[in-house]
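1st attempt posting a full record on here, be nice pls
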Amino acid sequence: SDLTGHVFTLKNGKSKSKGIAWSGFVGASSTIALIPTVPLFVDFLVNARTKDKQDINVVGSLTVRLDPSTAVSKFDFTVTPKGASTTDWMAQIKAMVIQQVLDPIRNKAKSLTVEEATVAHTVFSEIVQTEITKDGNLLKANGVNTIACSITGADAANDEVQNTIGAKELQEKLTASDLAVHSRRIKAAENDRTIKQFEVETQ
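the predicted structure (as tokens):
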């Protein structure tokens, strides 16, 4: 057997580490577990409700890395002699991730209005990462170590509400743009007056 990843041999309920990219003979009474050593990306979508009773959808991704010595006894990473997984262990990890991000996101959403929530990507990301990296967290206890949390979207579930927020944001941007243009025009006019005054005084 010639496999990449962290390899363990399993026999009689016990595991033995063979290290990374191990190549060797496997006895008939033993099986092989292959644990990925590269970062894994787990996408999630959480439905939450804001303090003004609006439903929102928070979309994100958790980047995790497995601790082989712990994860080998928590999930079934057994593979065929050619290295193909015999179970869908990634689905189990994804379910565990979703379970752990639900409460932090939903609890935080309760303290925000829908308008605040739709721009709170960083806030949601930080609260999730803080909660799931605490000692005793289920992910950590199962050998799933969090590297980073990224929130890529937070939108009102109701299209009309989202469109209203979008229209308001657009209006605020246009107003800010108009103010900037007005400010530049005032400054330009002041510069013109200064130049003309200088020209008069130096004639």
